[in-house]
Structures are given as C-alpha cells and as structure tokens.
Amino acid sequence: VKTLVEVLETEARSLAKNVEDARHAAEEEQKRLHVLEAQVYSAEKEREEEQNKELEAVQQQLHETQKRLEGTVRVVEDENDGLRAAHAELRRQLGERDEALADWEQNTHGLEEELEEAKSVIEELSGRVRILENAMEEQEQE
C-alpha cells in the first residue's frame, strides 16, 4: 500500500508540476497574446494614422485643385464678359457704319441727282453760249 501511496504521491507531484508548468506556459502564452494584441493595435493605429495623412494630402490636393478651377472659371468668365462687351461694341459700330453707309448712299444719290441737274444746266448754258457766240459772230459779220 505504501508503494501505491508513494506512486500516487509521485504522480500527484508530477501532475501538480505539469499543472504548474501548464499554468506557467499559459501565462507565457497570455503574455505573448498581449504582446501580439499590442502589436496589432499599434499596427492598426499606425495604418489609421497613415491613411489619415494620405486622406489629408488628397483633401489638400482637392482643395488646391478646386481653388485653381475657381480661378480658371473667374478668368474664363472675365474673358467671356470682355468678349460680350467687344461683341456689343462691334455691333454698335456696325450699326453706326450701316447708318453712315445709308447716309452716304443717300447723299451720293442726292449728289448724282444734283450732278445730273448741273449737267443739264451746263448743257443748257452751253447751248445758250453757242447761240450767243453765233449771234455775236453774225453781228460782227454784219
């Protein structure tokens, strides 16, 4: 019986040692798990910070691009306004030119009529001068 008790005690000590070893191994595994969790947390935080930096950079680029586009839109709108004003001025000048051309044509027509009248008067006067010259020649001959 004594040997059985000794064997059982040895087995119990062995089991107790195995339990202690297992507990110690579990604690070590628990420590490793905490280290791994901390590493994962740190990696996730680092990744999140990196993504935030990238997002901020993209947002900054977007903001700068938007400002450039707004500037470009203002320039184009200003140019468009300038072109509209130039177009309106050209239409105004074209209207003035058309009026001046119509006045010129009317004046030219009036001058042509006056020229025809003047030619007619000249012809009539030339005819009278010829008559007078002929009459003077006849008088001189008499």
Overview of this protein structure:
The chain is mainly alpha-helical. It is 99% helix and 0% strand. The chain has one helix and no strands. The longest helix is centred in the middle third of the chain and has 140 residues, at 2-141. It is rod-shaped, with a radius of gyration of 59 Å. The N and C termini lie far apart (201 Å). The model has no long low-confidence stretch (mean pLDDT 95).
Helix-strand blueprint:
Blueprint (H helix, E strand, L loop, with lengths): L1 H140 L1
Concise overview:
With 142 residues, the protein is mainly alpha-helical. The protein has one helix and no strands.
**Total count of strands:** 0
The unreliable regions are none
Oligomeric assembly = single chain
| Strand and helix order | H
The coarse overall form would be: rod-shaped
Write down the Rg: 59 Å
Biggest β-sheet strands, sense, barrel: none
The level of helicity is over 70%
Q: Report the portion of residues in β strands.
A: under 5%
Tell me the distance between the termini.
201 Å
Mean pLDDT: 95
By DSSP (H or I, 4+ residues per run), the number of helices equals 1
Structural class: mainly alpha
Brief descriptors of the model:
single chain; mainly alpha; 1 helix
